[in-house]
Amino acid sequence: MESKTATILVVDDHATNRLKMSMAVKRLGYETCQAENGLVALECLRRDPIDLMLLDIVMPEMDGYEVLAAIKEDAGLRDIPIIVISALDELDSVVKAIELGAEDYLPKAFDPVLLNARVGACLEKKQLRDLEVEYLRQVELLTDAAGIIEDENFDPEALRLESVIARDDALGRLARVLTDMAREVHAREQSLKRQVQSLKIEIDKTRQKEQVSSITDTDYFKDLRGRAGDLRTMLQDKKDEKG
Amino acid sequence: MSRIVSIHSFRGGTGKSNTTANIATQLALAGKRVGVIDTDIQSPGIHVLFGLKGADIKHSLNDFLWGKGEIGAAVHDVTDHLNRAMPGKVFLIPSSAQADEIVNVLREGYDVSLLTTGFRKLVGELSLDVLLIDTHPGLNEETLFSIAISHALVIVMRPDHQDYEGTGVTVEVARSLEIPNMSLVVNKTPPVLDPEEVRQRVQQTYSVTDVTVLPHCDEMMNLASGGVFSTAYPDHALTRLYQALAAKLAA
């Protein structure tokens, strides 16, 4: 059974029918909101987080078919399940509505048990679809992160994998491993950067001077320095002597 | 006229021998006759890069320094080992890789002045354009001598705290010896560091204008001393940097 936190939009131009349907839905434990025609329904869908819509077909201003067509064109709305409400003798209308994207239908003279079953089934399908969409979105985040690493950016924050890391499945584990590896490389890079940034101040000039003196003050070095120029000249000319 | 170039680093593990081997290769590709002498007697290794095994070395620099033979006998023409046609030549004078001979030198030392004789003979007999000396890290008497007789000194360092001060000491000692040309090579620079920023900082810190920044390179690590990088990866960006460095040293 679907969680009762879902919000269901009831769309019907007849106030009595709308109220009757809303009451029935509320009795099942869902939140409801209402719209008296197709235009108002679209406004509601775009403004509020609606999980399912119960839609009458025959309405003034904008009928149910037009609402279905408008929703199909709207990427932000097209995944909201719609159950059309129709009279028992309107089978053609039901077929047309389903072709336009409706999930299911209910007769106007509905049985509460049937209402519960169809609403529950639709919401369950929506939940599965939402999970799949979210999974695919997180797979995309992961492949984006791999691309960022491929471009040699190992900053864990640049990977934007927080939501994937929170998963307790294999995808979450992959994201955690990738982030941990990137974090380690990033830390090493930062450390190397700091080393280079501090290159100048890391040299202890006093100690360096002492080390240089310990070499240049020796008799061996002084003698070598005295002869170095001559030795270089001698070696440089050697090839010419041969030639 | 021939040039003596010492390739030195204050600390081991900077990639000094790899740098030497690649400069030698680039010089030979440019038509130069190049000698490479491994004076890192305590821990020889450059012969491996040129495809020589320890057992292949029948005569080495050690024999000459111990009066057991002429330096010419230790010359190995490794040009063909580079697996690339080149107008120049690379002659390697390796140090012995035999443990007992290394221990003997460490225990008893050798007459440093013999190096002058040896270098003169090499330059003359092989008609060398450039003699590269792969030195022993640190600043012992033998290394100071190699640096002193050089027309150019290349100091290889890594962007690492352990190298900063020692490199500073080496630079000052070389200045005191009035070495005509001094270059710094910052090797194995991580990709996260901006090469131009590193170059400028090193220039300012050591007051040396000629600074080359070589990036860390995975291909070099994968090669694992199994050859000379420049010939294994002729079109690599790092090879172009070695090429430019060699051209500067030959100029």
Structural class of chain B: alpha/beta
How would you state the average pLDDT of chain A, rounded?
A: 88
DSSP summary: helix tally of chain B? 11
Radius of gyration of chain B: 17 Å
Salient structural properties:
heterodimer; A: 243 residues; alpha/beta; five-stranded parallel beta sheet; 5 strands; 10% strand; B: 251 residues; eight-stranded mixed beta sheet; 11 helices; 42% helix; 18% strand
Mind sketching the topology for me?
The complex is a heterodimer of chains A (243) and B (251).
Chain A: E1 7-11, H1 15-27, E2 31-35, H2 38-47, E3 52-56, H3 64-73, E4 82-86, H4 91-99, E5 104-107, H5 112-150, H6 156-159, H7 162-165, H8 170-197, H9 205-216, H10 219-242
Parallel strand pairs in A: 1-2, 1-3, 3-4, 4-5
Chain B: E1 3-8, H1 16-29, E2 33-38, H2 46-49, H3 61-65, E3 76-77, E4 89-93, H4 99-108, H5 114-125, E5 130-134, H6 141-148, E6 152-157, H7 161-176, E7 181-189, H8 195-206, E8 211-215, H9 218-223, H10 229-232, H11 237-250
Parallel strand pairs in B: 1-5, 1-6, 2-4, 2-5, 6-7, 7-8
Antiparallel strand pairs in B: 3-4
Helix pairs in contact in B: 1-11
Model description:
The complex is a heterodimer of chains A (243) and B (251). Chain A is of the alpha/beta class and 243 residues long. Chain A contains 10 helices and 5 strands. A 5-stranded parallel beta sheet of chain A has the order 2-1-3-4-5, sandwiched between helices. The radius of gyration of chain A is 38 Å and the shape is rod-shaped. Chain B starts with a strand and ends with a helix. Chain B is globular and about 50 Å long. The model of chain B has no long low-confidence stretch (mean pLDDT 91). In chain B, helix 8 (195-206) links the parallel strand 7 and strand 8. Chains A and B meet through helix 8, helix 9 and helix 10 of A and helix 5, helix 6, helix 7 and helix 8 of B.
The gist of it:
The complex is a heterodimer of chains A (243) and B (251). By secondary structure, chain A is of the alpha/beta class.
